[in-house]
């Protein structure tokens, strides 16, 4: 076997039975013999789906990528993968992120591809593609779908998710009519693209860019903007060049790049879900990315982006202010700027010339939205493995709080009782939801943003301390403690909390404690029984048997540190049979 060949040449270049079959089957799609002249084969991994509304425009984006690939002398071939739409998939897309990552990895490696362009948008599609590409480790570049346009209702700017949550509470409190609420449906989501606040999709688009996996400036371009297609075309050209130089994800997504990404996550007030996804990605790469690193970098990184749900503006405003390169330039003294990127240039070179066009959107480091990053890591006897809170989206007066617990056994129990007029709850209560973690959910659904009880909403209460082993939407807000680890379904301390127990939150001190003696907790643990598993077969059973806890990214234990890209494919190439001199040699 000629080890100097590109991967695709083992499928297409030479004389032999299988090679004849491979070429003939592609010719039936209308391709002429010129596509087999040794040009690199570029896969376009498309998560388009009509069920994933955030990604519904990616067919058009894929066409732009193809133009770029052809221009650079490559041969583009588009293929689908599992697509995960946050609004529709139940119980949660997080249940299937790992499945999509496996799909991406296996389809990259199983097919005659020399490089791949990853098209994603909605929350789990981008991290799943990054994880799969990291494990496959062939040249790869990310093109995200971009945020949708700003919502507008009766002259009021609306942000997806964030304002939906706020307005629904207004309906529950009787201050907004159902008719008005329904009218907003056509006003809040009015174009292709993902959520236009700094939710999980926007966060992961930013993470892809700062990691060096996206061409600079790509994260924030609105989905309907023609510059999104121009970026896609440029990415198609660039991936051909990356194949020629064999520039791989493992060379780009280094520990230094991961540290940069975590810094930027803090600076933009990124989604708490970004913590889980970045830890999972670090695991795939074999890098020491853990909660301790997030807490370390959060303490010394100011949050300087005035974007909802932490601030005021939306992604469209962020783009017109200069986008992510401006944020990165403003905290460049905290970044490792010599990290290589898919552009072929370093982070520092990419930031040259970044200019802020709106100081109200992107703030100065000496006048930040918050002196510390947007995410804080808590520990204590209620979360010995760690928990997450987003102080920039919380109420300042609740960041240090002590109150009695009101416990909901699961999601069903929560919605059966939360609006009951006789619910034993006060403004100082701490709402606790359990059995919502990776195993208990299952899949760690976005249930952590527990509704404020209706009786308190009517009194004007807008926020309370809420604690769970669940996640919450990156578009959500409030004094919400998430990802409590270990989770209740496997016997974590959250399973032992009872109504009336005192709980103390100290976000500045990074503490979360259940004020109950260890002896009492030991007695409770001795009588605790785990809930019955939700799945007994299929992928659900695989998930429950192998999912790791939130502090390890909720990936599967058998995928951590996997080096699929180094898989010995020599037997597969040999099995193609009868390979003789390559065409054109």
How would you describe what is shown here?
The protein has 585 residues and is α/β, with parallel strands linked by helices. It has two domains: 38-149 and 191-243 and 254-351, Rossmann fold (3-Layer(aba) Sandwich), CATH 3.40.50; 376-526, IlvD/EDD C-terminal domain-like (Glucose Oxidase, domain 1, 3-Layer(bba) Sandwich), CATH 3.50.30. It is built from 21 helices and 14 strands. Helix 4 (94-110) runs parallel beside helix 5 (125-136) and helix 11 crosses helix 13. The radius of gyration is 25 Å and the shape is globular. The model is unreliable at 578-585 (pLDDT under 50).
Summed up:
By secondary structure, this protein is of the alpha/beta class. The chain has helices spanning 9-12, 17-27, 58-71, 94-110, 125-136, 162-172, 178-188, 200-211, 226-245, 249-252, 255-267, 273-285, 291-299, 315-320, 324-330, 347-351, 411-417, 454-457, 518-526, 538-546, 570-575; strands spanning 41-46, 75-80, 115-120, 140-144, 151-153, 156-158, 376-380, 383-389, 400-408, 430-433, 465-468, 480-485, 502-506, 511-514. β10 (430-433), α18 and β11 form a beta-alpha-beta unit.
């Amino acid at each position: 076997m000629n080890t100097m060949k590109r991967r695709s040449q083992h499928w297409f270049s030479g004389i032999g039975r299988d090679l004849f079959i491979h070429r003939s089957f592609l010719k039936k799609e209308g391709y002429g013999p010129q596509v087999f002249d040794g040009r690199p084969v570029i896969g376009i991994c498309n998560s388009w789906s009509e069920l994933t509304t955030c990604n519904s425009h990616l067919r058009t984006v894929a066409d732009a990528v193809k133009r770029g690939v052809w221009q650079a002398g490559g041969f583009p071939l588009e293929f689908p993968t599992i697509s995960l739409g946050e609004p529709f998939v139940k119980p949660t897309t997080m249940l299937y992120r790992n499945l999509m990552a496996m799909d991406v990895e296996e389809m990259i490696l199983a097919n005659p591809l020399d490089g791949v362009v990853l098209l994603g948008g909605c929350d789990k599609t981008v991290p799943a593609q990054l994880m799969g590409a990291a494990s496959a480790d062939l040249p790869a570049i990310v093109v995200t779908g971009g945020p949708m346009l700003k919502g507008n209702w009766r002259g009021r700017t609306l942000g997806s998710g964030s304002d939906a949550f706020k307005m629904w509470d207004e309906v529950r409190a009787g201050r907004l009519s159902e008719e008005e609420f329904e009218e907003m449906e056509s006003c809040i989501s009015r174009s292709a693209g993902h959520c236009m606040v700094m939710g999980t999709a926007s966060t992961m688009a930013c993470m892809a860019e700062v990691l060096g996996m996206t061409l600079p400036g790509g994260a924030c371009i609105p989905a309907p903007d023609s510059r999104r297609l121009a970026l896609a075309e440029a990415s198609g050209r660039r991936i051909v060049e990356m194949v020629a130089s064999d520039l791989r994800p493992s060379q780009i997504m280094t520990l230094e790049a991961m540290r940069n990404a975590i810094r930027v996550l803090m600076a933009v007030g990124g989604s708490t879900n970004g913590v889980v996804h970045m830890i999972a990605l670090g695991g795939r790469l074999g890098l020491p990315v853990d909660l301790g690193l997030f807490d370390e970098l959060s303490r010394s990184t100011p949050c300087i982006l005035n974007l909802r749900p932490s601030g005021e503006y939306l992604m469209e405003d962020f783009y017109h202010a200069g986008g992510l390169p401006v944020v990165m330039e403003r905290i460049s003294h905290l970044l490792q700027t010599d990290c290589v990127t898919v552009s072929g240039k370093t982070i520092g070179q990419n930031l040259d010339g970044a200019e802020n066009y709106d100081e109200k959107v992107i703030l100065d480091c000496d006048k930040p939205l918050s002196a510390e990053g947007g995410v804080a890591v808590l520990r204590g006897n209620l979360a010995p493995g760690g928990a997450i809170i987003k102080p920039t989206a919380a109420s300042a007066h609740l960041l240090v709080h002590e109150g009695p617990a009101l416990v909901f056994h699961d999601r069903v129990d929560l919605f059966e009782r939360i609006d009951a007029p006789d619910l034993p709850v006060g403004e100082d209560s701490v709402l606790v939801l359990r059995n919502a973690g990776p195993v208990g959910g299952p899949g760690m659904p976005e249930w952590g943003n527990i509704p404020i009880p209706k009786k308190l909403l009517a009194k004007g209460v807008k926020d309370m301390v809420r604690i769970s082993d669940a996640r919450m939407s990156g578009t959500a807000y409030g004094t919400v403690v998430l990802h409590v680890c270990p989770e209740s379904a496997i016997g974590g301390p959250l399973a032992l909390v009872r109504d009336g127990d005192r709980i103390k939150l100290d976000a500045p001190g990074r503490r979360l404690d259940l004020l109950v003696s260890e002896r009492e907790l030991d007695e409770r643990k001795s009588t605790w029984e785990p809930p019955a598993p939700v799945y007994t077969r299929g992928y659900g059973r695989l998930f429950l048997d192998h999912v790791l806890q939130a502090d390890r990214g909720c990936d599967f234990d058998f995928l951590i540190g996997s080096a699929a890209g180094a898989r010995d494919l020599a037997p597969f190439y040999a099995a193609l049979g009868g390979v003789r001199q390559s065409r054109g040699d």
